[in-house]
Amino acid sequence: MIDFRIEPELQAKLDWMDNFVRTKCEMIDLLYPGHGAPYDVGNTESRAYIKPLQDQVKAQGLWACHLGPELGGPGYGQLTLALMNEILGRSYWAPTIFGTAAPDTGNAEILAMFGTEEQKARFLKPLMAGEIVSTFSMTEPQAGADPTEFTCKAYRDGDAWVIEGEKWFSSNARFASFLIVMAVTNPENPPHGRMSMLIVPTDTPGIEFIRHSQTMGDSKGEDDGTHAYIRYNKVRVPLDAMLGGPGEGFKVAQARLGGGRVHHAMRTVGKCQRAIDMMLERAVSRRTKGKLLSEHQFVQGAIGQSVIELEQFRLLVLKTAWIIDNEPHGAARTHIAMCKVQMAKVYHDIVQRAIQIHGSLGVTLETPLADMWMGLPSLALADGPTEVHLAQVARAYLKNTKPAPGLFPSDHGPSRLAAYQNGVS
Hints:
This protein is α+β, with helices and mostly antiparallel strands. It contains 13 helices and 10 strands.
């Protein structure tokens, strides 16, 4: 039986998190704005400001909740993590303050699962402490996120791996201390066995940052892009820089994506709830045509539709998290894809309605709504385009569907009746 009950002790922690994010983290969004700000470890002012807040989180036992006790985390299951990430989604600084910012969370997980003791000491320990940030350098300019089309390669030369090729949209690389690079090392293998993961410190000779691309919402006049276009010019790393075994890059990548997509989806639930909260407040505060917005049926419809859609999506994500916790490995794959597909649609519809209800104020930069809206296209593309996951859901159901036994569908009334009358079950 699927059970979403929350124990009183956990509810107390969630209540503390909710108050902390609303009163502390959301204020830091205003003090230090910008998509890249939480990752800029070189900004000593912002780092000094958040350090006491991070200490408070650690004192509550809520630091790096995605990892087990052996790695400094509390070892919560995915359902609990989903509820926590719903709260963190209200603020883009909150994940950094709680030690759960992506892509560092996923990188920490694969370092914990596949890393050697030396790799953990050098890279995982400072990453867990929040002292550094990292980058997952996978996407390529000509292949997007399809690893079977990757051309960036790494080959052995004596006691080193030599990396040659380009990577695109390596998020936060300008701030990172190291990159985890997916490169083709075994071209003779089947497509999903060709790649390997390599840990590359960003000060390694041969790394060329072609540019740091900006996205919607960034200031075009400033160099504030956070998504790097990188060229690896015969970058040499030692043989022990490999994370996992040769040809296991796809396996390693998949290990970091499943839970991360659920967390991402629940953070989106948190953003949507914030938009609904703003919508509700606006509706009972603003008057037009002699009455409150909340008294107009069009506004009531927008609010009602938003609440229903978010509740449906939230339950889907919680069910997915429950499956990960309670079913065999891989059982949640289709549900994870469902979350990815529905996430962008629900987010789009709710934020758009919130902007509409706020009128001209909604399109200004004076509320969080404009920034939410600008993040929509990226939401539909991160971790793979929505269409890829939609097709995956369809294939999962088609795979177990048998064709009709005869000329007509199995639910064809006359055929069923005739079979029944002839004694055919």
